[in-house]
Amino acid sequence: MKIYNTMTRKKEEFVPIETGKIKMYVCGPTVYNYFHIGNARTFLFFDVVRRYFEYRNFKVTFVKNITDIDDKLIEQSITEKIPVSEIAKKYIDAYYEDINALEIRRPTYQSKATEYLDEMIALIKELEEKGFAYEKNGDVYFSVEKSKDYGKLSGRKLEDLKVGARVEENPNKKNPADFTLWKKAKPDEPKWKSPWGDGRPGWHTECVVMSRKFLGETFDIHGGAIDLIFPHHENEIAQAEAVSNKPLANYWMHGGFLNISGEKMSKSLDNFFLTRDVLKKYNAETIRFFFLSKHYRSPIDFNEDILRESNQAMKNLYSPLKETDYLSFIDKKPDYSKNQNELKDQFIEAMDDDFNTAKAIAVLFEIAKSARSSKDINFTHLLVELGRILGFFSYLEEKFRTNLDDISEELILLLIRYRSQFKKNKNWKMADAIRDDLKRIGIELKDTPDGTDWEIIK
Ligand code: AMP
Ligand code: ZN
User: 100 and 218 share a domain?
Assistant: First the structure.
């Protein structure tokens, strides 16, 4: 299997540290707001990475953090006039709600930064003792010049960084590129006691401590979106390698952005859609399809036309289940033919090639097509087995149960026939009333050259 490693800028053969086991860490949310659909792209992708490794029989230890102390939480607590701890609680709860709605599986460990303060202080102390960190007026900084090869992940040179960082020059720093390990608390800010006075840890330190705590000094995969390459991951590497002299992770995976009109969707640019709002219009699997039909490293532009198409595409993937009466055979063990095994291999080959989910989805369509034309239940079994790796076909039994029964479907078709009769008679008022009334109860009609389609819009 090959994975693109940001560290070497190459697709590399993936070799785990321990045979059959995978240790991975993905940077999680800073809980000061509801997460947006751009964050969701990254969370969803790594959920698929985890599912795929498990499908390939690896034992995966997956750690994701929650940053529950940070400048942004403090600002939000002032805006909402509630304590920082309540801001954290409110948005952690909301995070889980949205994660569940997206059908993203829980990681093995979901660690909160505020639970590991002792370990963070110990790491900063160790860095100070080893000469990598210095204190100034209650703040502690990491001295980037002490680092052996600072900039190796992002490819940035210390010289250029100095020039860039000068804009926000901080007189406490020896080098403008030095970064904060410990930040002195201002009055009324949340604080922890430390050898340098009351304060809080820096974000970059939080992730180093939590990843090493659960996964050890070196683990297999460290992930996030590309915005984290610099400074966040660069600074994690600098700290971890200063104390261990070993690589923090062997493979660095970074997902592309979800953009909006070519610009990164982000809270600070105020150009975001909240995941919970998008979920009101499109279901989790449609959103998954929308993201996974592109390669994870390519940028994607948020586009509602494509989301609607994704919804239709998911329906097409579901249709063989009904046509082959899958639920009646759900417990039957599949017996794959040579052709079916070849299709399975094609899917695996695509995923083994740096998680080419777009290609993998194309294979799913081929399987669905064969299932529809042959009505061979084994094709449907294969479709579900492989689709589930991408997070499709989850909660199948429940979904089918809430599906329309035959009578409801007949009634919708009947109304569509009446509406076209009204249209023929140029009775636009009645034709529109049928369309609008159906929409109000969650059924949308779409006129196509071949007639009228309908879909449930939730
Ligand atoms: P944050 O809560 O901003 O720290 O981000 C949580 C995760 O979402 C990180 O892994 C980010 O790299 C990722 N992320 C943030 N914005 C986007 C975006 N527009 N597209 C894809 N991933 C993003
Ligand atoms: Zn992180």
Answer: yes
